[in-house]
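For the sake of transparency, this paper describes our internal protein records without simplification. Such a record has a labelled line for the sequence and another for the backbone structure tokens. Nothing more is needed to write down the fold, since each code stands for a local backbone conformation. For reference, a complete record is included directly beneath this paragraph.
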Amino acid sequence: MPNNKNAFTLVEMLVAVILITLLIGVAIFAFRYQLIAIKKSQKVGLTYVLSYNQLRTSLQSMKCYVVDDYDMLNQPMKQLHIFFEGKPTELTYITESSVLSKEVSLVKVSCRDSELLYTEEKLYDKIDYLRPKLSKNAPEVVLYKNVNDCSFNYHVKNLNFDTLEGKMPTAITINLNIKDKNQEIYVNVKSDYNISVGLIDDAIYSIE
């Protein structure tokens, strides 16, 4: 009589071990792929938030700036200057909350080559602060990539402008289209370009 036993042969055991190993390998690969995807999405989200906060802080801290001058009697004095150049796709301004140097700086935010760029240079370093202009070697940082379109709008109280020069806005709107998604950055400027004479002393920076 044949001997019927409920047992696995060596071949069946090997096949079962191989199948289990393959399943575990696939599960580990899928898990690692999911972790990488999550990390990438978190990195992109964190980068966007950091860029947004840096730009917002810089714009909010836009300031009039102070230069050394002389009065009619040739006596040294401090004079408050306003510098702002706003164009449809770029703006240049003075800020005390710069991203790179942490000093009073001349900053340009511009759209170029599908990127939103941040360029910065110390105001009281090598720049002619009476006629501020960024040098060719000014440090530059990419805030956003894959920018299909962008536009800048400048608000002075209840009026809106595509261009604004020599006058500090009360708010700025930057409209971005990134990867076919429209995004808006709206910033209230804390500085008041109508600073009264009595507050000028509070606005003076120490020029080293």
About this structure: DSSP finds two helices and twelve strands in the chain. Residues 38-46, 192-208 have pLDDT under 50 and may be disordered. Residues 10-60 form the longest helix (51 residues).
